Amino acid sequence: MKRSIFVIMMAILLVGLAACGTKESGEKAASGTENKQKEDFVFASSGLYPPFNYTENNKLVGFDVEIGTAIAEEMGMNPKPVTNPWQTIIAALQTDKFDAIIGSMAITDERLKEVNFTDPYYESGAQIFVSKDNDSIKNADDLKGKTIGVVVSSTFEENAKEYTDDVKTYDSDVTALQDLLVKGRLDAVITDRLVGMYAVNQNNLKIKQVGEPIYLDQMGIAIQKDDEELLKKVNEALKSIQENGTYGEISEKYFGEDISQK
User: Would you say the pTM of this structure is higher than 0.85?
Assistant: First the structure.
């Protein structure tokens, strides 16, 4: 009888230990799931295009960076902004270095052969800038035969070639605009109106914009051609941040207005 009681007690004890082990394992599994990092949304820009994307205190910041971050969070993903040279940025996207390009890339027919674009997230114009003491250039017609500075591999580079064979390319707009102040270096710079005005104000450059914008660009987020699922998700997230006011808040911070409404 005593032996039977002993056997029963041991069986109860073993069942209890097994239950505890199962519970503990379950708790660890749940904890592991909760602590699992969200999937990264890696998006790229040149990092040389203030106020849209640039480095400040060793950190990538700017309008594009904040828009990309808001889109990632809307999709429930972890935002991870990175930089890549502009002239190779599409090739890098095609080789899976990142998920998207959020770097104020103009939507063009040529680029659409290589990538897909989301709905436009803002529109801006190609603007002519000259030094303040330059009165010989008042509009696009005056650019014929002049020396024009542009960012390499930009839509502005192709546009400048319509007016002159003397086109100088730069890695950043700020460097190009600063060269307007070096005698004999450049006659004009063609760049985005918002970028140019920001550079003038931030760097106190003695330059000015002349004439109306030569043309308007619609900027989109570039996604790999075969990634229709991500394209749909990013478009939905972009629409959401525009509707819930997040986009407007970011835009007001950099431009004092909602540039998606321009």
Answer: no
